[in-house]
Every structure is written in structure tokens, then in C-alpha cells.
Specification:
The complex is a heterodimer of chains A (about 400) and B (about 210). With about 400 residues, chain A is of the alpha/beta class. Chain A has 15 helices and 14 strands. Chain A has an eight-stranded mixed sheet, with helices on both faces. Chain B is mainly α and about 210 residues long. Classes of the chains: A alpha/beta (about 400), B mainly alpha (about 210).
Chain lengths: ~400, ~210
């Protein structure tokens, strides 16, 4: 069984959610047969300009075929087209033009898929909204498996995606909420699909003391992991946290780890540590009272799963269906929809160690039952062999 | 439940009105259910925000606290008694005479009308603060709110059409029901007649 993983960009230094998800799955599925990755030469997800050399290379024992991007994204043109198709009546051709403007446009990649269809048993397309998935699935519909990694994004309502969601042979969803959303939008209940998600690799050991000593963090702290961006709900998080400090006089700190595109509030109890290695991330999780996830849109929050894997409770944004659903299914996290709920939920979690412990225990059990790599691989194999869903 | 450690607060900082959430929300550890817990938190948050909304409290760093209720004390009226002796008493007497024309204005300021004005002003200020808060809250989601509003308008239009069609269908059904009832009454009469005829014919045959 030869598998082709098709994704918009690929590399060890690429940490985007869907791309990392694809790499991890590809590396684990290597144990079950030959695996190749078909991708572009792009590295930057804003411009998609060619960065890597076209041709083949091997990354972690996986053959990666890279194809040129025919033209980098014109950001202004893309914004103009997107604003138009989201706000006015338009034709399917306009949506195709939007897809081309979004990029990464790589006709060479699609031509390769068409010419080498017979060389592969299955094509796994990651991220529904990009050029390679739309045209790739249309090129090899009978061999295609789509991993949509979809969020509540306005573009998901476009007509071209409604058609796309009716084409693949099977789906691999990240969550029940994602499956329900896609099935409701496209009416594709007849196409087999399974909720799988992604596993994570935990380091052999993790130490809160090491983290505290290395980064000079003392006292209780709550942790945010990921890109610090208004789109991820961080602006709300800052407002809510500072208001919480004023209202409760709690000694708790907010520790932020990840790249930032948002100004960090100048407050002694808000600590920004920048982008840190994986080991530090797990050490921080080990020391944190809880993980806070303020994001409004998530397809599957990997850091939430990692927090649960380490037995840490989660405080998540209730406006995100996926996070809310995960917290309720796992019985391992609380959610908030406004400041009052944030204050009370955080106050409750910080004031009741027994509750944190119980939620963390539930989270660990949920992770063990659904997200260890042997379970993920088994589910992928079931979908590939047509026995899933 | 383990008791929470008391937070260390600098003495010069103003103490906020801290309520202990553990007294408000009861956690059932035997049957821990996040949904139930969330419902309780939502209720507690709603209950806590209700008095906050009602009160015209000043925001942190905003206006000074409101004065105590009740009319402010009126300025003392000029005393009619003899002027006390000494330089101090003479000065006091002159001051009283100088201020005498202003006593009506000072009394007016002391009346409940002034207090009412101040309360209204405070209430308006609190409303402004809340509106500012809502605008800040909406800031990032304004486009989303506008889209939701448009969507709601479309839903309302569809619901209006649906109601119209339902009324039409209900009216048609009512007419049809009345017609069917009439038919049933006719059939009953015909059946009754047929039974009578049957009995008459049977009698004739048996004769």
C-alpha cells in the first residue's frame, strides 16, 4: 500500500497546525507501507513564494517531492477578491479566481498527481481550503482521502467547497463538530468518514522545576501555548486576565509561549517567553495550574490534547464549538463565554486543587483512549482499507 | 475540599470585593460532570453580574466613590442672637452679613433636587462606561456581528414567508375539514335511510 500525502507546505521547520499534523501522520504511517509527500516549494504561508528547491529530498526517511509555485500570492488582490466573494453575489468562476489568488498555485503538482495516479494506492489531502486539495481531489477522486482540518471560517460556505466535500472516497475528521459542520454544509453523509484527530509524542521526562529555574518563573501560573494573535483570542485573554487580577487579587501569573504578532501587556504577572523548544513546552505544561485556550476557531487543538496527556485541565473559549465539545466529551476542561464565566471558572480551578486533579485525570484517560499513536494509526488503516466509518 | 491559600495583597492597594467562588459553586467530586459545573458557573456569573449592572459603581481608576445617600447638610442659617464680643466675633458677624444674599442659593444646593441631579449624572456616567465596555468587547467581532445580523434578517424574512404559507395551508385545511364534516353528515343520513329501507325490505321478504 503506497501512500501519497499531499499538503501545501512541508518541512521540519514548519509548525503550522495542518502541516505538522500531516508530517506526524506521514511519519507514523511509514510503518505500514511506502509513504511519499507531494508538496510545494513554499515556506511562507502568506506569500507562498518558492523557498525550497524543486525536486526530491528525504526528511525523516520520507521521500518529499516538491513542485514550484507558479506565482506568489498578491496579498492585496487576494484580500480584494475575498472581500468581494464574502459580501456580494458572485459566480463559481469568482470563487475559482479566489482559490487561485489564495495559492499556493502549483499546476505542476496537479499534473504530477494526474500522471502518476497508478503509482499510489491512496492520496491523502490535508487542508480543504488550498489549491492542491481542490484540484487534487478532482483529479483523483476515487483514490482521495480528505483530511479537511476545517474551522468555522466564512470561506467554508463557498459553493466550490460544497462540491469538493462530495467528491473524495473518504474523510478523516479531526472532531465530531468538524464532521457535523461539513456534513450539514454539503449533505455528504453518504461518504464514509471517521473522526480520528492526531496523536502527540510526549518526551520521556518533563520537569516543572527545570522550567521554573530556566525561565525564572515562580508561583502559580496559567499557560497559553501557540501563536499570540488576536485571531487566536489572545486580545480577549489579556483583557480578561488583567481584569481577573484586579477583581480577585489572585497571585496567579499568565505565561505565554509562542511567536507573537500582538503587543504583550506590560504587567509584572504576564510573562512572555517567546518561541521555546518542545522540551520546554512540556516542562511548562507540567508546572502550569492549567492551560488556557482562548481561540475562537479550532479544528483540533493539539496543545489541548498535550495538556490532557500530561494531566492538566483546560480552560477554553466556549465560542469555539470544537473546544467546547472536547471539554464536555472528555470531562476535563471548563469553558467560558464572557468575562464573568472566565473569572468564576478560573477562580474555581485555582481555588480547588482537587478539581484540577480530577479534571486532569479525566483528560489523561480521554487522551489515552483516543489519541495515542497506535489508536490513530489503526483508525487511519481502517479508513484506507475501507473498513472505517 | 482543600482550603485556598489567602492571596497576598499589598496594604496600599484598594481591596476589591472578593467573594469566594467555592462558597458559591458546589463541586460534586463523586459525579464530576463538566456540563453541570458549567451550568453552575454560568448561573453564578450571571448572578454576580446582575448587581454590578444595577449599581452605578465607578470603574477602576474612574470617578471617585458616590457620596452617601440623603440630602447634603444645609448651610447654617444666620443666628439672630447678639454678636459675640472680640475681633473674631466681629469678623464672623461681617462674614455672615456678606454671605446673607447668597443663602437662598446655598439652600437650593442643599435641596434634594441637587442630589437628584448628581445621582442622574452618576447613573449616566455608569451607562457610558458600560457602553464603552460593550464597544470594546465588540471591537474585533464587529464584522461577525454584522454578518450575524444580516443572517438574522434573512431568517426573519424566511420565517415571515413560512408563517404566511402556514396560515394559507391552515385556512385551506379548515375549509376542507368543514366540507368533509358535511359529507360525513350526508353519508350518515344516507346510511340511516339505507338501514330503514333494509329493515322494511326484510319485513316484506319475511311476510
Amino acid at each position: 500500500m503506497t501512500l501519497a500525502f499531499v499538503v501545501q507546505r512541508y518541512g521540519l521547520d514548519i509548525n503550522g497546525g495542518a502541516e505538522l499534523h500531516c508530517r506526524w501522520v506521514a511519519e507514523h504511517m511509514r510503518a505500514h507501507g511506502p509513504v511519499e509527500v507531494l508538496t510545494t516549494c513554499a515556506h511562507d504561508y502568506i506569500t507562498w513564494a518558492d523557498h525550497y528547491a524543486p525536486g526530491t529530498e528525504t526528511i525523516n526517511d520520507i521521500l518529499v517531492r516538491r513542485f514550484r509555485v507558479s506565482r506568489p500570492r498578491d496579498v492585496l488582490e487576494f484580500s480584494r477578491i475575498q472581500a468581494r466573494i464574502l459580501t456580494t453575489e458572485h459566480k463559481l468562476e469568482d470563487e475559482i479566481a479566489w482559490l487561485e489568488a489564495e495559492g499556493p498555485t502549483s499546476p505542476e503538482l496537479i499534473a504530477y498527481i494526474r500522471e502518476h495516479e497508478a503509482d499510489y494506492d491512496h492520496f491523502l489531502f490535508f487542508s480543504y481550503r488550498y489549491y492542491q486539495s481542490y484540484w487534487g481531489v478532482r483529479t483523483v477522486p476515487r483514490k482521495s482521502i480528505l483530511v479537511p482540518t476545517a474551522e468555522h471560517d466564512p470561506v467554508i460556505h463557498l459553493k466550490l467547497f460544497k462540491d469538493l466535500f462530495r467528491l473524495p472516497r473518504a474523510f478523516i475528521y479531526n472532531s465530531e463538530e468538524e464532521r457535523d459542520m461539513i456534513q450539514t454544509l454539503s449533505g455528504n453523509r453518504n461518504i464514509p468518514g471517521m473522526v480520528v484527530g492526531v496523536g502527540t509524542v510526549l518526551p520521556a521526562e518533563h520537569s516543572a522545576e527545570r522550567f521554573r529555574a530556566k525561565h525564572g518563573v515562580s508561583g502559580p501560573f496559567i499557560l497559553y501555548l501557540g501563536r499570540i494573535d488576536a485571531n487566536k483570542g489572545c486580545a480577549h485573554l489579556f483583557d480578561y486576565f488583567l481584569q481577573f487580577k484586579r477583581d480577585t487579587n489572585s497571585p496567579v501569573k499568565l505565561v505565554l509561549i509562542g511567536a507573537t504578532v500582538l503587543p504583550i501587556p506590560d504587567h509584572p504577572d504576564v510573562r512572555y517567553l517567546g518561541f521555546l523548544p518542545e522540551q520546554d513546552k512540556f516542562d511548562a505544561l507540567e508546572g502550569a495550574e492549567l492551560l488556557v485556550m482562548p481561540s475562537f476557531y479550532e479544528s483540533l487543538s493539539m496543545v489541548t490534547l498535550e495538556a490532557w496527556a500530561l494531566g492538566r485541565p483546560v480552560l477554553a473559549n466556549a465560542h469555539c464549538d470544537v473546544l467546547k465539545g472536547q471539554c464536555r466529551r472528555s470531562n476535563a476542561g471548563l469553558t467560558y463565554a464572557n468575562y464573568g464565566e472566565f473569572r468564576d471558572a478560573l477562580d474555581l480551578l485555582l481555588g480547588a486543587p482537587r478539581l484540577r486533579e480530577a479534571l486532569g485525570r479525566n483528560g489523561r484517560a480521554y487522551f489515552q483512549a483516543r489519541y495515542t499513536w497506535d489508536i490513530i494509526e489503526r483508525k487511519y488503516l481502517a479508513v484506507l482499507n475501507g473498513t472505517g466509518a | 475540599m482543600t482550603e485556598r491559600p489567602k492571596p497576598e495583597v499589598p496594604m496600599d492597594k484598594p481591596q476589591p470585593d472578593v467573594r469566594d467562588i467555592l462558597d458559591v459553586i458546589d463541586v460534586d467530586y463523586e459525579n464530576l460532570d463538566v456540563s453541570v459545573l458549567m451550568d453552575r458557573i454560568q448561573k453564578a456569573a450571571a448572578a454576580a453580574s446582575a448587581p454590578e449592572q444595577g449599581a452605578a459603581a465607578a470603574p477602576p481608576g474612574g470617578l471617585p466613590p458616590a457620596p452617601p445617600a440623603g440630602p447634603p447638610p444645609a448651610p447654617p442659617a444666620p443666628e439672630a442672637g447678639p454678636v459675640p464680643s472680640g475681633t473674631k466675633s466681629k469678623l464672623q458677624g461681617k462674614m455672615v452679613r456678606l454671605l446673607t444674599p447668597f443663602f437662598p442659593l446655598m439652600r437650593l444646593l442643599g435641596l434634594p433636587l441637587h442630589q437628584e441631579l448628581r445621582e442622574t449624572q452618576q447613573s449616566l456616567h455608569a451607562t457610558n462606561v458600560r457602553i464603552d465596555g460593550i464597544v470594546r468587547e465588540l471591537g474585533g467581532n464587529l464584522d461577525q456581528a454584522r454578518r450575524d445580523l444580516n443572517k438574522s434578517q434573512e431568517y426573519i424574512k424566511l420565517l415571515h414567508n413560512l408563517s404566511h404559507n402556514l396560515i394559507l395551508t391552515a385556512t385551506t385545511q379548515k375549509i376542507e375539514l368543514d366540507m368533509l364534516k358535511s359529507k360525513v353528515r350526508v353519508l350518515e343520513k344516507e346510511l340511516e335511510f339505507a338501514q330503514k329501507r333494509e329493515r322494511a325490505l326484510e319485513e316484506q321478504v319475511l311476510k
